[in-house]
């Protein structure tokens, strides 16, 4: 039996990279996957072949409570329930701190911190008021936030991104304190350097690429699938006693 049969998994930022790999991993385990993105989802849908995939084209950049609440309501309407929420969508803007614009600051914080918080809030509210009573006894709502190495480090020229990812670690811990008693598990994964479109510029810079590899004990960039496996674990019954954790999947970067 596939581990997520009859389960509904919502993944934001699902059109490519880590989000796409997460969708595929859950699809392989029999889940009904709801992929959320502002761009095309046809490729992700095709890779989830054999499992039901529901595309939802939504721009999460507004970072408002209403957008999040409307999205969760639409998921419940179309899929019937929510068993797992993966907050993966995020953006990054690079500039020296003395020149960092208000526009870039606001966009990053709205997308990377406000939207995940409000999606957590809307999902938990649905679960507490409706979903829990309709689910099988002992079932749980699982929330996985995608944090970053910059939940622990400051980085260079990415002040808004670092602030948002520190915030993701903070709300993960804070919400777990309130919601553990409601049978809600909320944890986070802090990816290391992963080979995605967002890191292409770093990988194509020979000097920077080598400096990164020299710090990683595994001596390789991570793959999106490395993060997807962690999400499946955190969404499974194997992690029922894990709450408020931020797990590093970084090839040993932080241990160095």
Can you characterise this structure?
The protein contains 8 helices and 7 strands, in the order βαβαβαβαβαβαααβ. The chain is α/β, with parallel strands linked by helices. It has one domain: Rossmann fold (3-Layer(aba) Sandwich), CATH 3.40.50.720. α1 links the parallel β1 and β2. The mean pLDDT is 95. The longest helix is centred in the middle third of the chain and has 33 residues, at 102-134.
Counted by DSSP, the helix tally is 8
As residue ranges, the low-confidence spans are none
CATH class group: Alpha Beta
Largest sheet: 7 strands, parallel
DSSP strand count: 7
- What is Rg? 18 Å
What key phrases describe this protein's structure?
256 residues, alpha/beta, Rossmann fold, seven-stranded parallel β-sheet
Summarize the model shown.
With 256 residues, this protein is of the alpha/beta class. 45% of the residues lie in helices and 15% in strands.
SSE inventory with pairings:
Blueprint: E1 8-12, H1 17-28, E2 32-37, H2 42-47, E3 53-57, H3 65-79, E4 84-87, H4 102-134, E5 141-146, H5 159-179, E6 184-191, H6 200-204, H7 206-215, H8 224-235, E7 246-249
Parallel strand pairs: 1-2, 1-4, 2-3, 4-5, 5-6, 6-7
């Amino acid at each position: 039996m596939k581990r997520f049969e009859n389960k509904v998994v919502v993944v934001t930022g699902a059109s490519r990279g880590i989000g796409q790999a997460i969708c595929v991993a859950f699809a392989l385990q029999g889940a009904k996957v709801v992929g959320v993105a502002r761009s095309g989802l046809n490729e992700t849908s095709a890779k989830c072949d054999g499992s039901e995939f529901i595309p939802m084209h939504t721009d999460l950049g507004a970072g408002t409570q209403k957008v999040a609440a409307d999205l969760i309501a639409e998921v419940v309407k179309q899929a019937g329930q929510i068993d797992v929420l993966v907050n993966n969508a995020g953006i990054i803007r690079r500039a020296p701190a003395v020149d960092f614009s208000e526009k870039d600051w606001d966009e990053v914080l709205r997308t990377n911190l406000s939207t995940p918080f409000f999606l957590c809030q809307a999902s938990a509210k649905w679960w507490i008021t409706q979903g829990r009573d309709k689910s099988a006894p002992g079932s749980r709502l699982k929330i996985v936030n995608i944090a970053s190495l910059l939940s622990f480090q400051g980085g260079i020229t990415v002040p808004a991104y670092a602030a948002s990812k520190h915030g993701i670690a903070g709300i993960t811990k804070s919400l777990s304190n309130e919601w553990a008693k409601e049978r809600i598990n909320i944890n986070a994964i802090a990816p290391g350097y992963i080979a995605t479109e967002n890191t292409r510029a770093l990988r194509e810079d020979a000097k920077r690429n080598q400096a990164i590899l020299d710090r990683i004990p595994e001596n390789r960039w991570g793959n999106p699938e490395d993060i997807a496996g962690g999400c499946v674990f955190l969404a499974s019954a194997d992690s029922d006693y894990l709450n408020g954790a931020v797990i590093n999947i970084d090839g040993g970067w932080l241990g160095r």
